[in-house]
Amino acid sequence: TLRMLTGYFMPTSGTIRVKDYLLDNNLLEIKKLMGYLTESAPLYHNMLVFDYIDNVARIRGLDKDQRAFRIQQLVDLCGLDEIMHRSINELSKGLNQRVGLAHAMMGDPEILVLDEPTSGLDPNQIVEIREIIRRIGKEKTVILSTHILSEAEATCDRIVIIHQGRIVADSSTADLRQAAGRKRCIRVGLKGPTDEEAEAFLADLSGLQRIARLEESDDIISLDLHYGPVAGFEEALYGRIKSTDWVLYELSRQTQSLETIFRQLTKEG
After folding, report:
1. CA dist., res. 180 & res. 160, Å (int)
2. Are 247 and 190 in contact (CB under 8 A)?
3. Max Cα separation, the chain?
């Protein structure tokens, strides 16, 4: 999909429109609007970082003064100052991605398309790349593909989930959570009763829809209580437990993670 959006693959059917341009008729104009970084940055590994970025600037048609100014901007943005005179084949994948990002940004595109930009990076490199993307996103439209949903949650303002070629969600992270939040759940950890005793004791709570058992640990039973939109369910649950001599180890509201929402939206049926 990203290759079609950026003009590397032509679609066999359908229409792609970028701003007021149609891909079939205005391919060059669309490419001028975009910067594109593939999953593995396609760099010339025998070149120095400075020579590579300078070469990209020359291909883009920047004159000497423009090149110097734009290269310095990208060095500052992507944190390349300490590696400008190192050979690309000496760099880690994280640094390669930074160089690739500078390449994609050279033409000052309105739209930046990033395909799995943090794939294969260590946790420190992931945080650094995310921060760069967030800075760019304040001024540009950034389209980011990822299967790491925590990354989408940490980086993106708007999330589109695609399942078997169709959009099944298109919303902000907050709105996705709010929609999923209609399914309410509280986790209870108890020591004293058996699973059966606890379930029987709590079964008639107003609004309770079902109880799910989790694995027992150190004689502590864990139950997930799913309930409907009724007022005071948490207070009633706590009061019910308080009336016993059971030890309460956990009482917490379970929020829907983006991973859980993704599984719900993409499971069969």
Report:
1. 15
2. yes
3. 80
Q: Which segments of 76-219 are extended strands (E)?
A: 111-115, 141-145, 159-163, 166-171, 184-191, 208-213
Identity of the amino acid at 220: I
pTM for the model: 0.74
**Tens-digit pLDDT profile for the chain (269 aa)?**
899 999 989 999 999 999 999 998 999 999 999 999 988 888 999 999 999 999 999 999 999 999 999 999 999 999 999 999 999 999 998 899 999 999 999 999 999 999 998 888 888 888 888 899 999 999 999 999 988 887 888 888 899 999 888 898 898 877 877 666 556 889 999 999 988 999 999 999 998 988 998 887 778 999 999 888 788 898 999 999 999 999 999 998 877 677 777 887 887 55
Let me know: does 58 contact 51? Beta carbons within 8 Å.
no
